[in-house]
Amino acid sequence: MSEDELEKFILKAHEMLDVLSRVRGGAHDALVGVWVKCWIELNPHHMAFNPAPIARSRVADIMFLEPTDYDEEEPCIWGPVGAAEIENVKDKWFDKLESLREYVEKYRLRFALLCARVYTNSKEEVKAFEQLREKVVGVSRRTPNVKWILYRLDEYSWKEDWRAVAFEPDPNALVYFYRFIGGGEGLIIENGEVVFKSKAEKRGIESM
To answer: pTM of the full predicted structure?
Structure first.
């Protein structure tokens, strides 16, 4: 998979943000589903495992597959090219990075994706994500044949939500607001450098 194809993968992932902005709760399963959808829509011959086959003691959320052999121009064998971990909980981000390292070593993957959900009002989470980014940069220096995708999902306060939820039909029933996903940023990191960066917000998409 070329760098250009991975860039398209990130840009396609931005398209999922409108759907995710209307999903409440942890949404882990929804996130896994949209990443699989993005991968398969990227190329009609793509396939995926959910969850991924085991790597040592780890089971990642997704393994991405591409054709490796063809029979009369049609794919007949698929092989792993990437793996993904989707994590909403800050305290598990670094453990998920270790999981991806095991997948890279066992399956000789060409890319690894870590998607982290960050609450924008939490200085602790924002700082931890910056530390995670530096950690991924460091890991990329030690895995020269692997491209690392770090995708940050921005979670906003319930106070910014305008979609009220009522659990009873009574017009006088209480309504509730929840935190929601409102934007994201994708990075491709290779050999210790950020080689691609794209940010998606309500205002649109910006790329570097």
So the answer is: 0.92
pLDDT digits (tens, 9 = 90+) for 85-136: 999 999 999 999 999 999 999 999 999 999 999 999 999 999 999 999 999 9
- Rounded to 5 degrees, φ, ψ at 59 are -130, 105
- Residue 31 three-state SS: helix
CA distance 152 to 86: 10
Domain count, the chain: 1
Phi, psi for residue 47 in degrees, rounded to 5: -135, 170
Question: Minimal CA–CA distance to 183: which of 26, 6, 16?
Answer: 16
Whether the link from the prior residue into 171 is cis, omega within 30° of 0, is no
Tens of pLDDT along 32-43?
Answer: 999 999 999 999
Tell me the one-letter amino acid at 174. Answer: L
Range of the domain at 102: 3-207
